[in-house]
Amino acid sequence: MFGFIKSAIKGLQKPEYDNVGNSDEYEERRYKPAKWVSTTVNKISAKEATTEGFHRLFAFISGENDKSTKVDMTAPVTTWVDPGAGPNCESSFTVSFYIPTEHQEDPPKPTNPLVFIEDRPEFTAYVTKFGGFANDEMWVQKAVELGNAIGDYSKFNDEQYYTAGYDPPFKPFGRTNEIWFVKNETSLKGSSVDQKEEQKIQYSPVNVTTV
């Protein structure tokens, strides 16, 4: 699996966005509408959830879809984090791969019922970057720091957020991680979470008959 990712790492497609503002501590980006392939995992650990979600999505791009099509790896891997009620409660993590341009109009349909195609609308995000290998505590710390840097909590959804990772696990240096807070002019909660069942129906898995 890692060999496939490594061979493509230099030419990964990324979702399109415009930079619409900057400060010393974060930037403001407007992302264009796009389709993503997604899966939701409920876990206490973000690392365990994203690993499980990544493997489901990697199976999809490796041909586990109705067309048996191999789809190029893209970046970043985003995770929509909907925190649980407490430190020992499960949180909801929706892990997503951006679908490459050549498949945006008619993406392959997942055959795994836990995987769905997400229509992510245009949205604006406050984004902060940091390096290194991010663990669960670091993601939370950076989210808190970004919220404090923005200051006005009425500007963004402070209950959920995205994490974004751009690098494979074998890359030791020069890693890029990001936290995205969605600006309140747009809502992605429905895109990543509430519309999950609708997306599953729209892109229903093919029936497989075993003999």
Topology of helices and strands:
Blueprint: H1 2-8, E1 17-22, E2 27-31, E3 34-43, H2 46-61, E4 77-82, E5 91-98, E6 115-120, E7 123-130, H3 136-150, E8 161-165, E9 177-182, H4 189-194, H5 196-202
Antiparallel strand pairs: 1-2, 2-7, 3-5, 3-6, 4-5, 4-8, 7-9, 8-9
Number of strands: 9
Q: Mean of the pLDDT scores?
A: 88
Strand order of the largest sheet: 1-2-7-9-8-4-5-3-6
The assigned CATH architecture is: Alpha-Beta Barrel
Give the CA-based shape.
Answer: globular
Terminal Cα separation, in Å? 29 Å
C-alpha-based Rg, rounded: 17 Å
Q: Helical region count?
A: 5
Strand coverage percent:
25-35%
Q: How would you sum up this structure, described in words?
A:
It contains 5 helices and 9 strands; from the N terminus they run H-E-E-E-H-E-E-E-E-H-E-E-H-H. The chain is α+β, with helices and mostly antiparallel strands. It has a single domain, classed as Multidrug-efflux Transporter 1 Regulator Bmrr, Chain A. Strands 1-2-7-9-8-4-5-3-6 form a 9-stranded antiparallel sheet, sandwiched between helices. The longest helix has 16 residues. The radius of gyration is 17 Å and the shape is globular. The two termini are 29 Å apart. The N terminus and C terminus are likely disordered. Pfam families: SOUL (PF04832). This is SOUL heme-binding protein. Belongs to the HEBP family.
